Amino acid sequence: MTRDPALGGRWALLLIALVLAWPLLVLAEFKPWTLFDERSLRATGRFLGEFFPPRMDAEFLALLARETWRTVAIATAGLTLALLIAVPTALLATSRLSASTLEGRPGPSRWLRRAVRALLVALRSIPELVWALVFVRVVGLGPTSGVLAIAIAYGGMLGKVYAEILESADPAPTQALLCGGSGRLQALGFGTLPSCLPELLSYTVYRWECAVRSSVALGFVGAGGLGQLLDSASKMFAGAEVSAILLVFIALVMASDAFSRWLRGRLA
Amino acid sequence: MLAGSTGKHIATPGRLGSGPALGPQLLNLVGIDAAALGGTAPVLHGVNLAVATGEPLAVIGASGAGKTTLLNMLALMQAPLAGSLLLDGADPWAQTRRDRQRLRAGIALAPQHPPLPPRQRVAVAVLAARLPCMSLARSLRTLWSPPDAPLAQAALEQLGLPDKLWLRVDRLSGGERQRVGLARLLVSDARLWLADEPLAALDPTRAEQVLAVLRRNAAERGAALVCSLHQVDLALKHFPRVVALRAGRVVFDGPPGGLDEELLEELYRSQHESPPELAPLPQPVPLPQAMCR
Q1: Is residue B293 predicted with pLDDT exceeding 60?
Q2: Which residues of chain A have a CB within 8 Å of the CB of B108?
Q3: A256 part of a folded domain
């Protein structure tokens, strides 16, 4: 009578997960102990040893500052364009604002939602690196291809997550407004956004941080910014420059973290 | 059995003549079967109910009798399973979704648990009831800073909340939240007000005041007021017409004078005639002494 009806299912799921994980680890050649054999440790130590002290002369710092600014610009412009993709698609993809779900009968609009979700999957399943390689061919070397690559891949991610954040909020206020005869955008603004806004904003700031980081990878294929600098520094085995660039990344991420915390504090 | 006695309690349509002068018919329900929101099993069975424009009426009945389902159906939240529901003589569920959404603008429902976003300011939460008659530009302005704040303040003052306008909803107590939910009715442009247990979180004195405010405002605006209530005494005292539900059926519909003790008792008698024999609660296993330190 008081036996937990969910218990059997939970054990089964755990068992299945373990059984599935084993071949996956074998397939991924997961051998963490090779990290700790003597040869690897020596190579790692030598590389890390060159990191100190980071290069700090005026000429390099000026270059670093300019490329940092360019990286921030790539990430910000890319994310802004991504928002242009993500906001409308999220509104189309979320079932929360659909009057047909309110009335309990799925209408034809669910096909539109599925199509939009499929489009978002396509946008984000191709890594931004591949988009960058494509755009480097089209618009040439430089930041533009980085911006476009981030815009498309991140548009797909943001659209999906925005739609899910909107669906995770308490549906009652939105449905009450829809049921009171208000329009969908009005119901969104007065019923859904008040509870979702902090999460939406902090996710957006986190994505900006990711865009800063992924602009490194994009720099490796010639999309400009700190990534390109890091690419040339590591090719020339200039460990001091590499560490200086990495310090800038840490500072950027810390800044975005502080900004996000401040924003959440303001809205909480 | 109640079913046999049903006929004698339901007043004939002539009943309308005895009350105050009422307008033309607003709602007419005939033989309605309806399920709870999201459900498929009928909760209401063969409900007949006519509501005139501007008519106040109270719906009473035990928990689970179908009061909320009835109100949700009047709010056009869910189509009935069977029977006919006419609003202004037309079936809303035969119309297009767009037209139905327009009809919903004329109906305001205050659910028992007010659906207010916790982070929203009271002023905005109240004025959200006016969204159907606001342009998108004006609603954006309201989100930024509500130009109709005096309207919300007037409604809140009537309900005894003069100093809550700019507070966030999550700073309010349960009773205050419920009155903010009712303030939505007062500012709305609707001509059918539905209040589901509007007094559930209020103390007795406050409950009387709030009910009087609802009745007065609905009368002034010519809005029909359908109020589901647990407090039978208040329903009898404040409403010229009472509809009693039992197990999803209307068992009484008429002026409160027609409700006798016997019927009331039957309304609220539990489905089980006597509570089942309860086994004593098992004692928790005592923890070893060492774990309690």
Answers
A1: no
A2: 180
A3: no
DSSP state of B1: -
What per-residue confidence (pLDDT) applies to B15? 42
The token pair that represents B266 in the structure block: 């039957």
With b meaning 16 or more CB within 10 Å and e meaning fewer, what string describes B43-64?
bbbebebebbbbbbbbbbbbee
The predicted-structure confidence for A154-210, as pLDDT tens digits, reads as follows 999 999 999 999 988 888 899 889 888 888 889 999 999 998 988 898 899 899 888
Q: Scanning every residue of chain A, which has its alpha carbon at the shortest distance from the alpha carbon of B126?
A: A190
A186 closest CB neighbour out of B77, B106, B136: B136
The residue among B69, B131, B142, B192 with the most chain A CBs within 10 A of its CB, best to mutate, is B131
Q: What is the Cα–Cα distance from B246 to B251, expressed in whole angstroms?
A: 6
Tell me how many helices (H) and strands (E) chain B has: 12, 9
Q: What is the pLDDT of residues B169-216, one digit of tens each?
A: 999 999 999 999 999 999 998 999 999 999 988 888 899 999 999 999
What CATH number is associated with residue A186?
A: 1.10.3720.10
Spatial neighbors of B178 by CB under 8 A, at least 6 apart, are B114, B198, B200, B201, B202
Q: What global pTM score does this model have?
A: 0.78
Q: Provide the pLDDT for residue B7.
A: 42
Whether A204 contacts A154, CB under 8 Å: no
Q: How far apart are CA A247 and CA A21, in angstroms?
A: 36
Question: Distance between CA B16 and CA A208 in Å, rounded?
Answer: 66
CA-to-CA distance for B267 and B262, rounded, in angstroms?
Answer: 9
pLDDT in the model for residue B53: 92
Domain residues for A149? 72-218
> Is A204 within the bounds of a domain?
yes
According to DSSP H, which parts of chain A are helical? 7-27, 38-49, 58-93, 99-102, 109-125, 128-139, 143-168, 171-179, 184-187, 193-220, 226-235, 239-267
Residues 6+ apart with CB under 8 A from A225: A67, A70, A71, A74, A143, A146, A215, A216, A218, A219
* Chain B interface mutation, best of A102, A190, A200, highest count of B Cβ atoms under 10 Å: A190
Closest alpha carbon to B136 in A185, A85, A254, A126: A185
pLDDT exceeds 70 at position B3: no
Mean pLDDT of chain B: 85
Cross-strand bridge partners of residue B246: B249
Tell me if A46 is assigned to some domain.
no
Which ranges of chain A have pLDDT less than 50? none
A133 falls within a domain: yes
A186, B116: Cβ pair inside 8 Å? no
Overall number of domains in chain A = 1
CA A152/CA A227 separation, integer angstroms:
19
